[in-house]
């Protein structure tokens, strides 16, 4: 098995090649709005470094969000195109699940939180289980106050992982939540591949056309047009 993994749901883009034994090669770019320029050269770089051709890839894993609208579209479109061209199965996983997986050795409640812009966060809660983590809540979007309220209500030690923790660090410290290190700010394609490999082994895969992004809310462009329509006295299209 040779698995291509793509994660572009945040300002940090990453690509990895992996097999059952782990990551073979990975690369990343921490500059927002450059996902489209990064992906094709990054995939070619990983294939070259691994001594593989595109035809050697047997499956594609991709981050499905929630996250930045443009990044998600680019990553999922690339994964679909690559997989469809080679008739490969795909697996889509949430970047929040990937973030929480990075904390799989923590012995406390885990909150994966990403900056959603517009003074909001994407988040979900997790607990460690043998071999990984298990999500305890649905994926959510909302204000930092709503999230810190949920942490307080849990009444136990909580570890916050993701760039959302740094964006609103003062709020989390007010509820005595611990913040994971900056090296865990974003989901990474290598961790995504590690999570996806067992699904490919169990054949829990999808067709490329079945991949669905997890936006959780309208895109910025749609909201902008909706507001513009209301200001002019019109009705925005659904």
Word description of this protein:
The chain is an alpha/beta fold and 238 residues long. The protein folds into two domains: 3-94 and 186-222, 2-Layer Sandwich (Nucleotidyltransferase, domain 5); 96-184, ATPase, nucleotide binding domain (Nucleotidyltransferase, domain 5). Helix content is 37%, strand content 26%. The chain has helices at 35-50, 69-86, 95-101, 144-154, 163-167, 169-174, 189-201, 220-231; strands at 3-7, 13-19, 22-29, 59-63, 90-93, 109-117, 120-129, 132-135, 140-142, 158-161, 178-179. The strands form two sheets. Strands 6, 7, 8, 9, 10 and 11 form a six-stranded mixed sheet that branches. Strand 2 (13-19) and strand 3 (22-29) form a beta hairpin. Helix 1 crosses helix 2 (69-86).
Q: Pairing-aware structural class of the strands and helices?
A: alpha/beta
Strand and helix order: EEEHEHEHEEEEHEHHEHH
CATH superfamily of the largest domain: ATPase, nucleotide binding domain
The share of residues in helices is 25-40%
Mean pLDDT: 91
- Annotation, overall tally of beta strands: 11
CATH class of the largest domain: Alpha Beta
The total count of helices amounts to 8
Report, as a whole number of angstroms, the end-to-end distance: 43 Å
Give the topology, please.
Blueprint: E1 3-7, E2 13-19, E3 22-29, H1 35-50, E4 59-63, H2 69-86, E5 90-93, H3 95-101, E6 109-117, E7 120-129, E8 132-135, E9 140-142, H4 144-154, E10 158-161, H5 163-167, H6 169-174, E11 178-179, H7 189-201, H8 220-231
Parallel strand pairs: 1-4, 4-5, 6-10, 10-11
Antiparallel strand pairs: 1-2, 2-3, 6-7, 7-8, 7-9
Helix pairs in contact: 1-2
